[in-house]
Design a protein that fits this description.
Distance between the termini: 30 Å
Radius of gyration: 21 Å
Mean pLDDT: 90
Largest sheet: 11 strands, mixed
Number of strands: 18
């Protein structure tokens, strides 16, 4: 068992009420680790209590393959495991009781994918800011040039459209084109593998950055849950932890920048689509980020999903279909508006993490995902993979 050196759970993970949707509704599912079973159990959270979905559903994947997962979860409600408040409180790094259940990432066998540069307006604005070198009048002139060339508001720019192609030609002529803009306004979205199934960490866990990285940041995102049929069945929150210095050296290092021990965090729970929550709610969501450092540093930012350039359903169509199948379904991180440009330390260095940072990603209709930053090399190693899950489920007669 680890010891926690940065105060009590209330100092950083927050209370259980903050982890849940503020509207008091919703079909909420996830996974808990049951010490007696030495393995994970899918659960339903209802009226502040946690109920097993096993043996009816051995995995969250099985649940999300149902034609109506929300109705199936409510019908599959089994034995009570404990109160959500107690299990949430036991889910922080250095948990108080290793013999009591704690929350895991709320998904299991799903592939974990991510879409990048999905907010084209912020990407174009960043290019304008770089060319203007901080001169607001010059930035306004460049913006006027672009809007005059392509016609209309930049915020209405549709990737892959004729207007986007006109903008591409203009930026190339001005020497401003980049591979990031290609996926930002071109016809093909950037969709990459963020983590392997079962590798993501949940609420209260440490999230990892490489010791060799000197410039890194959180990426607060809405995350879709997609069935093998391509149906979008729910959503959660995610932190697509990114090493900016590694990715900046070469786009071919994307995997090294994105996929490291404990670098994918999701949760706290999945809110399944039902009468109280739909894809339209995701389209309108605000995802808030708060970073609090041991040094007293505080950062607040908001990512407004209504500004996304590619509709979430269109991104899912690029992810899955006749061109690519996911027999166990997938998670899809939808990208972020967060641009970590404010200096934390030396002028011009922008934001980067410090060990011990507490990262809170929240949205009223889903809840709060809270994690603490540590070197990936010092985070608990990932040891419970697919083979361990299958063996555990077989020993519990759940297969």
């Amino acid at each position: 068992m680890h010891t926690h050196e940065h105060g009590t759970v209330a100092d950083w993970i927050g209370d259980a009420a903050a982890a849940l949707p503020t509207d008091g509704y919703g079909t909420l599912v996830g996974r808990v680790w049951e010490p007696e079973a030495q393995g994970p159990t899918p659960v339903l959270i209802e009226s502040g209590e946690v109920y097993a979905l096993a043996p009816r559903y051995a995995t969250i994947r099985d649940l999300t393959e149902e034609p109506n997962p929300a109705a199936a979860a409510r019908a599959g409600k089994g034995a009570r495991i404990g109160s959500f408040a107690e299990i949430h409180a036991n889910s922080q790094f250095g948990r108080t009781d290793p013999n009591f259940p704690w929350l895991l990432a709320p998904h299991d066998l799903h592939a974990v994918k991510a879409a990048g540069v999905t907010f084209a307006v912020s990407m174009v604005e960043r290019v304008i800011e770089e060319r203007a070198a901080g001169d607001q009048q010059r930035a306004a002139e460049i913006r006027a040039q672009i809007t005059d060339r392509i016609g209309g508001d930049l915020r209405a720019l549709e990737p892959g459209s004729k207007r986007a192609a006109d903008l591409k030609r203009f930026l190339i002529s001005e020497g401003l084109w980049s591979q990031y803009l290609e996926v930002g306004i071109g016809p093909d979205a950037e969709i990459f593998s963020k983590a392997l199934p079962l590798a993501s960490v949940g609420v209260g866990a440490e999230i990892g950055i490489l010791r060799s990285s000197n410039w890194n940041n959180p990426e607060p995102e809405a995350v879709l849950i997609v069935s093998s049929r391509g149906d979008i069945v729910g959503a959660t929150l995610g932190n697509d932890v990114n090493l900016r210095d590694v990715e900046g050296r070469s786009a071919l290092l994307l995997s090294k920048a994105k996929d490291n021990n404990a670098s994918s965090a999701t949760g706290p729970l999945i809110r399944l689509f039902d009468d109280s929550f739909s894809l339209d709610d995701v389209r309108r969501m605000e995802v808030r980020l708060t970073v609090t450092g041991d040094d007293g540093y505080v950062l607040d930012a908001v990512s407004d999903m209504s500004q996304i350039s590619r509709d979430p359903a269109a991104l899912v169509n690029q992810l899955i279909g006749p061109h690519h199948q996911y027999p166990d379904g997938a998670l899809l991180f939808l990208g972020t508006l967060f641009a970590p440009v404010d200096d934390r330390g030396a002028a011009g260095k922008g934001f980067t993490h410090e060990i011990g940072d507490v990262v809170r990603i929240s949205s009223p209709l889903i809840g709060s995902l809270v994690n603490r930053v540590q070197f990936s090399e010092h985070c608990d190693p990932w040891t419970f993979g697919v083979s361990a899950l299958m063996k555990n489920l077989a020993e519990r007669d759940l297969l």
